[in-house]
Queue: 3 jobs
Job 1
Amino acid sequence: MHEESSEFDSIESANFSLWSPVCRQDGSDVSCRFDVTSPEFLGINQADSRLLQGFVQAMDVCTGTVEKWSVQRFVTPYYTYSTDTENWQDAFRLAWRVTLSISGASRYRQCGKVGPYPADGLDSTWTDELSILPLEQEEVVIIANEGPVRDISFLEERSAGRHLEEIEYDFPDSPVRQVRYHLGAMHLPTSIDAVRQILDQCRPRFMVSHSSVAAGRSAWQVPAGWTEIR
């Protein structure tokens, strides 16, 4: 168990961006998953409770205490600035998938947008020796949001046992679905063409594969109301 810190430093700049929160309430406990990217030369290693409490506060999920968590490092074309570059280090963006549990939660509400949520903090377990650039061998995840056609059969057919995750965001106007296709560990310098083939299949169907579209969607997404825990 990691030690808890009850005070936060003054916010000076947004060190991180938080994306695609999925939260679930069970009595006074809340579980939450979300992606983290860093616009600065920072990153996440094992994370600590101080940083994660700040993340929960930035997304305005609830009040409570972060009890346990896990962090999965991966790379994806979804958060890149351009998917057409020939440079493999520019074609993939480093990100972290955080899963955490909150106890003693109150003032819980579902998050109201895909992101990004600006957040501040430093991971006390992060060191300068940890490269923030994609390494040659990284876990690769393709992330895509739904469009006019709800058909992912082509991904199901080619998944061949790989993990295919579907998330449905229950927004007030209509549900919005996101697909996360886990390709596993790949040698990135030689895998760009294989990833692009999948992206090319995504685009004409129901999905988009770039974070700028997710950021634009957040303008019309209305946050859900508060649910008080009795």
Job 2
Amino acid sequence: MNVRTIQKIEIFYYDLLSGEKEDVFELALKKNIRLHELLEDESLEGDLIYEVKFSDGTAKVISHPKGERNEEWQSFKLSKLAQHWSTIYEWLNKSDFKTKRPFKHFSTRYEAEEARSTPEDWEIIKRFSAEEFELRIGPNEEGLDEFQELEENMDLILEYEDKNSRQFISEGRYYDYLLEEWINPRESYPALEPFILDVTYGNFWDNKEVTQKSEK
């Protein structure tokens, strides 16, 4: 079994009509739309191209229609790839992917939301009435066990991926069905983290907004 480490991953959009190839995040910025809007835009007829370089000097190029979804998850293939890798990170590290906050068991949902929300979101949530909080978020007294959430999220992944297991992942190998390669998760995260942040959290937009503000 050859387990590879991802050194770099880039995603491009290839326009079938013009034959032009462009970084997918740069294209979203140019069109002033979010990534999911670009993926949903049926007027853009083209493919996503994944260019992946591995630490052993090998490379791989994979493509699929831009709007193609995963059958089991009914999510865009690009989104699924990022979401799966962030889930594996959280399961291995027992912490939130973006903030690196260690997971824990919360005795109330109110406590959980305060810890898990951004300061901006928390300012909104803490003004909810008890009824509105329960309607939008859930019963406060039930609390929240983030470790149970981790296991449930891993169950969803492993249900459809018979080559993978918790034991394999903890030992340092995960079979990525899109790349069709065994990947070392921990060693690959330096390359995967920017990709996941851009796809899942829209960091390419945040970085652009920061740049624009600094230019004023």
Job 3
Amino acid sequence: MKQILDETFLPWLFEFYYSYKETGEFATASSDHLINQMYYSLPNETLLFGDGKYSNSDGSYYGHTDAGYMRNVLFYGVGGVIFLIIFQMKLIHNLFKNQNSPKLFLIVVFLTLLVLHIKGDVLMHTPLVSVMFGAIVLGDFKKLKEL
């Protein structure tokens, strides 16, 4: 088990750190692929209004990207992405308003979701991600209140 942890899990988990340690850059093969292949220039019409497509007829990702913001822009356009961000922010606020959560805590939760959305659909998309993230956050917050 320790060998798997040391040779597989830790290098994957701290890939950015190991890359920085070896090369002096916070770049990895997967982050380079994400930024260079999954995000690309779009026609102005698509950028503003989207194409209203989320997948191709064969079931593959529309635009051949699985990156969160890119898929949303391809479907909704920039206005739709802004709506998703505002709606997610309001949802977080409403979920935690009765918890007397510190504002910094809400900001960290919101920023975490925004960062995770760079890689894949997280904002207002996957119920499982929302439930898992909420359970982790609420569980940790309750522990923090007990201290």
